[in-house]
Design brief:
Strand content of chain A: 5-15%
Helix content of chain A: 40-55%
Distance between the termini of chain B: 29 Å
Number of helices of chain B: 23
Number of strands of chain B: 2
Order of helices and strands of chain A: EHEHHHEHE
Oligomer: heterodimer
Shape of chain B: globular
Number of domains of chain A: 2
Radius of gyration of chain B: 29 Å
Largest sheet of chain A: 4 strands, antiparallel
Helix content of chain B: 55-70%
Number of strands of chain A: 4
Number of helices of chain A: 5
Structural class of chain B: mainly alpha
């Protein structure tokens, strides 16, 4: 969002109104830039055409890496790099490797997913994103349109009709 | 507004809150100057912590000889405290992960503080093995990093090393989970702040915007983290129990240890959550968000896990006797009748007997009793770890090396110091971050706010943001005048919508107060009266299916109501059997058999 964008947005007081409005906007073929809400609103994703997040697939991949790192690492260390006899037990003591293998699987999956989450969302310490409206994190539900992609007058009449409590224009 | 009204479910947010109220109530503790109680608390905590830090420095400077450990008693208060703190740390992730998977909505009121508690408790716990090793400055030898000593690796077959991995992983994952939940709430604080505070909270909130895609990913992330944190939380105390169970010490090498330790950890964790939440809700006026319903739910968990722990204690005794193994038998006989009998009976009383008070609903819902019992359990779980560790080691295979272990002032000081550290961190956290998850509470408002759920669900005005400071859990029987004033609003959609509002008011004169039936609120009573049911007698003679049809016709928000018991209740009311009705209603929950 480096370039300045002219947007027009409507604020709704309730998530039910918001869902209805998004449905209507789809019916009117108005292209929504984004929807901002104070908490996750269920039922919004299909209306906005958002594909299911693939974060869990990434998590599985990271977990697999963790699993292999731990298991292969311990196996290599105790059979090749520095074999030590502990109480006459075999060098390749698979059951004894299970706890650490499990922990590293979880550790890699969690760290990987969280880091991925912030990178793909463009969020992180020090990131300053343009604020559309301060009340979006409080109690307002916002539908924003990019003026370069939609007809502003059509959007305005739509926002009025669909019950937006406030309509504003802004450059972000 | 929406259509999730339910008279059955107990509300989890009281006080007829709007979204904005939630923001104000939960953010304002971070905006106000600290209260005197908070300042007193932090001074005491920091003092304790400072003394603990001094004792740690004393230990490191002079060596472990400043503790009363010896060749036989290698573990004393240090490992007792370690296991105690780790156990306490289990409730946070349990609440946020397992209860998320089970879709328990009450978790939203307490998960933030419980996760913070987890992180701080694990920090306190990790301190003990760190200084117990003696040479704390080379504690990094534990980690398998390529080194110039061979490279020489740690023993991956050792439960103590598993423990290192389990606890580091647990700490990291809990921290990530907690912070990811905090990010949107820091954004809420940011958007209310000005100047330097705004800058700081923008850094903390990572530039959160509230975009739909971000929320979608956020939910996906939280769900997967919960999914993998669930086996993690079970694994951590399992591995802690391996520290004991894989040894060959009688009283330790039992297969019951993993489940027994996990249940005990959840038990002690919930006790500490209750202790903290009861203080927090009082200190920050959060009674509307951490309600009696939350306290009761946690007390039920305490009752269940406490009973599991009790069963484990008795199983251990039985197996010791049944095994026919004299050393095992002696270990348990010695616990109960040896020199540490007081800790064994303290453990039995605090952990097994005391939670049974929660069989009684009245005590389960009493804040004072819950607070008292939660502290008793905290003490009891400390006794449990002391019993397992000290009594066992003080009487080993060789009677000539038997002795009686009691801690030095240094060991006691370090324990006090961790309590100080824990409360210092918690009090700081409660000043800086919202102690209740704002976004998550907002997301359950429509299903668990007291204007949508519970006996007073329909009483509150549904027009947005009208705050009449309605009494929340008060009697539902005294609202007749209110009902009449809203009667006209309900006419549409009912079966006799042709009736004018004046005739309805007429018809209610001489009618019974149907709201005395559990499950019927003012609005449903309206619907019934509009449908021609004005008296208990009429209601008693109506088939529940007919009532159900009336409710369905009145709108989708009434579909969830189950009129199954209403005629039965009405029959008692018609016959004037009020005592019997009250008995029946005690057994019902929201007008339904449970």
């Amino acid at each position: 969002m480096a370039d300045n964008k002219n947007i027009i947005y409507g604020l709704y007081n309730d998530e039910v109104d918001l869902l209805k409005a998004v449905k209507e906007a789809n019916g009117d073929h108005l292209e929504i830039m984004d929807v901002y809400t104070p908490f996750p609103v269920h039922g919004l994703d299909p209306l906005l055409g958002l594909a299911e997040s693939r974060l869990h697939i990434a998590g599985f991949v990271y977990g697999t890496i963790g699993f292999l790192t731990a298991f292969l690492g311990m196996s290599w260390i105790f059979t090749k790099d520095w074999p030590i006899i502990f109480g006459g037990k075999p060098h390749w003591a698979v059951p004894a490797f299970i706890p650490i293998t499990f922990e590293l699987t979880v550790l890699f999956a969690s760290i990987g997913m969280v880091v991925t989450f912030y990178i793909i969302n463009g969020l992180g310490p020090g990131v300053v994103n343009p604020t559309i409206d301060l009340r979006i994190t409080d109690d307002k539900f916002c539908i924003a349109f990019d003026k370069s992609e939609v007809d502003s007058s059509k959007v305005e009449s739509f926002l009025k009709r669909s019950g937006a409590s406030e309509i504003h224009s802004k450059t972000i | 507004m929406s259509s999730h009204d339910s008279p059955i479910r107990e509300p989890l947010i009281t006080g007829n809150k709007s979204y904005h109220d939630i923001t104000v109530d939960l953010v304002s503790p971070t905006e106000r100057p600290p209260s005197p109680a908070w300042i007193v608390g932090i001074i005491i905590s920091i003092t304790l912590f400072a003394f603990g830090a001094f004792c740690i420095a004393w230990t490191i400077w002079n060596g472990i000889g400043t503790w009363n450990l010896n060749r036989t008693i290698g573990w004393g208060w240090d490992i007792t405290n370690f296991v105690w703190w780790i156990g306490i740390g289990h409730a946070g992730t349990l609440i946020s992960a397992i209860l998320l998977l089970f879709r328990q909505k009450w978790r939203t009121g307490v998960n933030r503080a419980a996760e913070a508690m987890t992180i701080f408790a694990v920090m306190c716990a990790a301190l003990f093995p760190g200084i117990h090793v003696g040479r704390a400055w080379v504690v990094f030898y534990f980690f398998p990093y390529p080194n110039t000593r061979g490279p020489l690796w740690p023993n991956f077959n050792s439960p103590l090393l598993w423990d290192l991995f389990a606890i580091s992983t647990y700490f990291t994952v809990s921290l990530l989970f907690w912070y990811t939940g905090l990010v949107p709430d820091f954004a809420t604080v940011r958007d209310r702040a000005k100047g330097i505070r705004r800058k700081i909270y923008n850094i903390l909130s990572f530039g959160w915007t509230g975009s739909a895609k971000h929320w979608q990913r956020w939910e996906a992330l939280c769900l997967v983290l919960a999914g993998i944190a669930t086996p993690l939380v079970l694994s951590v105390h399992t591995i802690v129990s391996f520290d004991f169970a894989t040894s060959i010490i009688p009283g330790w090498h039992t297969t019951i240890f993993p489940p027994y330790f996990v249940a005990g950890a959840i038990f002690s964790g919930f006790a500490m959550v209750l202790t903290l939440m009861i203080i927090t809700r009082k200190l920050f006026n959060l009674q509307d968000y951490i309600t009696i319903a939350h306290i009761e739910s946690m007390n039920k968990v305490i009752l269940v896990t406490g009973t599991i722990v009790g069963v484990a204690y008795l199983t251990e005794l039985f197996i010791a006797w049944y095994s026919g193994y004299v050393y095992e038998q002696f270990a348990f006989f010695n616990r109960a009748a040896g020199p540490y009998w007081w800790s064994y009976f303290g453990m039995m009383f605090c952990n097994v007997i005391s939670p049974w008070i929660f069989w009684v609903r009245k005590y389960r819902r009493s804040v004072a009793i819950t607070f008292f019992v939660s502290i008793v359990i905290n003490i009891g779980m400390w006794f449990e770890r002391f019993v397992i560790i000290a009594t066992t080691l003080a009487r080993d295979y060789l009677p000539s090396s038997w002795s009686y272990y009691s801690p030095t002032w240094v060991e006691m000081g370090i324990f006090a110091g961790t309590i100080g550290l824990f409360f210092t961190l918690y009090l700081l956290f409660a000043r800086v971050a919202p102690v209740v998850a704002i976004a998550e509470v907002k997301s359950i408002l429509k299903s668990s706010g007291d204007q949508y759920a519970g006996p007073n669900a329909h009483k509150h005005s549904h027009s947005d943001h009208s705050h009449t400071a309605a009494p929340t859990m008060s009697s539902q029987y005294t609202e007749v005048s209110n009902d009449l004033s809203t009667a006209s609003g309900m006419a549409a959609g009912t079966t006799t919508s042709a009736a004018t509002s004046s005739s309805k008011i007429q018809s209610t004169v001489g009618a019974d107060d149907l709201k005395k039936i559990e499950g019927i609120g003012p609005k449903i009573s309206e619907i019934l009266m509009n449908g021609g049911i004005n008296t208990f007698a009429q209601l008693a003679d109506t088939n529940p299916d007919v009532i159900k049809e009336m409710l369905v016709a009145a709108g989708s928000r009434y579909q969830a109501h189950d009129p199954g018991t209403w005629p039965e209740q009405a029959a008692l009311a018609r016959d004037g059997k009020w005592d019997e009705l009250e008995d029946l209603q005690d057994r019902l929950d929201g007008g339904k058999y449970v």
